[in-house]
Amino acid sequence: MTSPLGKRPGRTVAEGVTVLVAAVVAFPLYWMVLTALKPSAEVISAEPRPWTFAPTLDSFTRALTVQSFGRYFLNSVVIALIVVALSLLISFLAATALTRFRFRSRTTLLIMLLVVQMVPVEALTVPLFFLMRSVGDTVPAFGLNHLGSLVLVHLAFGLPFAIWMLRGFVAAVPVELEEAATLDGASRFRFLWQVLFPLVAPGLVATSVLSFIHAWNDFLFAKTFIISAAENQTLPLALQVFVKPDQNDWGAIMAGSTLMTIPVLVFFLFVQRRLVSGLAGAVKG
Amino acid sequence: MSQQVVRTRFRRGDGRVAYAYLAPALLVLAGLLGYPIYQLVLISLFDYGQEQVSGGAALEFLGLGNYRALLSDSQFWTVLAQTVGFAAVCVLGTLLVGTALAVLSTRVRTWARTLLFLAALGAWATPAVAGSTIWLFLFDANFGFVNEVLGTTGFSWTYDRWIAFGLVAAQVIWCSFPFVMVTLYAGIKAIPVEVVEAAALDGASTWRTARSVILPLLRPLLLIVTIQSIIWDFKVFTQIYVMTNGGGIAGRNLVLNVYAYQQAFAASQYGMGAAIGVVMTALLLLITFGYLRALRRTGEEL
To answer: Domains of chain B (ranges plus CATH)?
Structure first.
């Protein structure tokens, strides 16, 4: 196999460097898991060692029992899954409209989508805080201190990019296919869900991974919206409860971080191939 | 039935169907992005504090008062300079590391590449809060592994303003270079082998091939990853907030994003917080458009 860059002198050196870089990049994660498994005394030792001979699950137990971590975990899962499902549906429809149809204001909409992506959503915390406060007056489930408010904002923030990304995948499906389906008597609706939807599956997967991670990782909006309802807190904030002014419970913090990272990691590994082709597809489109 | 007929039938009512498909997206975007943007500008024109929010005190229209106060506040300028500098370091670092490793991965066998990609995926997948806390613990003054290795136990990496910024930047680069690396690697791989071979046959050196053949082909991808990095790094919030405990001692590690948050939700000056948000949005749009224009001037198709 020839590499695109042609010659390969000193491949052994290159591989040595690669292994070294991989080790450095992975080290913080190794340290996280290691710390989570260390007994307390070893965690807050003045001479930390990169190994442990007495692994224990104490820190995990503490994280899961003391601060109802399980509840926070569930909250995060619920928010992320609802956001993924809704944004897939909405962005698929929108991407189809923007690629398969010619209509006035199509270009305007595309440009607006691009511009909207550049708006720093973090700047919108103030107006969104008040918006959610008013929404909560009529529909409490979507107001402040409720999970619904987080679903709404993450749905909105992820949409422009999701639409933009899916556009490339939808455009890649030949128009002839749609004509053939129409000739065979398939309605628009049938074509949409039985032909197009399965064909853009790689794009849908890539899009959902990104929406999931977005919602799962959010710190700012959870911090802003969930003010007093501890039972509706999400994972990123739950970590903060082990941070104490006098002495951080590093073991529990690392156990919590591990629990929080694992789902994303599994998701990533599972779809990494599709993610790469998805990103490349979005770029080409 | 001729092709023409099919196409005509195909298009009738397209506009209506298209808008039906677009309706949910437009509704969500208008309500949760468009309206808040309008509200952001509006709030920034008022004196909007705790009394107005909870006490029902009358709103006082300030016009550009918040902006005037902001622009004459020396802290704002410091924070602005810090934001730009911090973002620049993060973007450059991310692009350098990501590009170098993308090239490196094309020159090694699969096992080594898989190892690197797994590690990078791990860094990429780590949620910002978790990543920040891990780094904080690695660099902890008393129990941190880094101080143990360097023999500097007791040294605080988050006390000095610039060392703290450097640490946060390193963390940001750690979790953002994988995106650049993976994207560029896919881009390099997508270049047909024939193109590179043809260049080699014409007697081009490896360096020349990289510069004159591969780089131009990668430019659209580089453009995307650069813009993405600028957008991300200009508005880093979590890392700064977690690692410097809300913006550092006496707020000396503030960036615009955290500054706006503190003004609004810690100091209850929602009008001022909104004004900072407006300034940040305007700056980000300016930077991105400026960058796009500069690229177009060099003859780049978008």
So the answer is: 74-301 (1.10.3720.10)
- Listed by number, the residues of chain B in 217-246 with a beta carbon closer than 8 Å to a beta carbon of chain A are 220-221, 224, 231, 234-235, 237-238, 241-242
Instruction: Please determine, for residue A100, whether its predicted confidence score (pLDDT) is greater than 80.
Output: yes
- In total, chain A counts a number of residues equal to 285
Gap between the Cα atoms of B106 and B114, Å rounded? 11
B/e letters for B204-216, b = 16+ CB within 10 Å, e = fewer, are bebeebbeebbee
Look at A119 and B209 and tell me if their CB atoms are within 8 Å: no
Q: pLDDT digits over A116-155, tens only?
A: 877 888 889 999 999 999 998 888 888 898 999 999 999 9
Mean pLDDT over A257-282 rounds to 73
Number of helices and strands in chain B (H, E):
16, 2
Residue B227: pLDDT band with limits 50, 70, 90 = confident
Question: Does residue B291 register a pLDDT over 70?
Answer: yes
Q: How big is chain B by its Cα radius of gyration, in Å?
A: 25
Domain A63-282 bears CATH identifier 1.10.3720.10: yes
Output DSSP code: residue B262: I
Distance (Å, rounded) from C-alpha B167 to C-alpha B256?
Answer: 18
The pLDDT score that the predictor gives to residue A277 is 58
Domain boundaries, chain A: 1-56, 63-282
Q: How far apart are CA B163 and CA A140, in angstroms?
A: 45
In this prediction, residue A279 carries a pLDDT of 55
Mean pLDDT, all residues of chain B: 87
- Helices B215-234, B74-106: axis angle to 10 degrees equals 140
Separation of alpha carbons A149 and B164, rounded Å: 34
Per-residue confidence (pLDDT) for residue A275, from 0 to 100:
61
| Integer angstrom CA distances of residue B153 from A92, B132, B145, B149 | 54, 20, 9, 9
Among B106, B109, B133, B185, which would you mutate to test the A interface (most chain A Cβ atoms within 10 Å of its Cβ)? Answer: B133
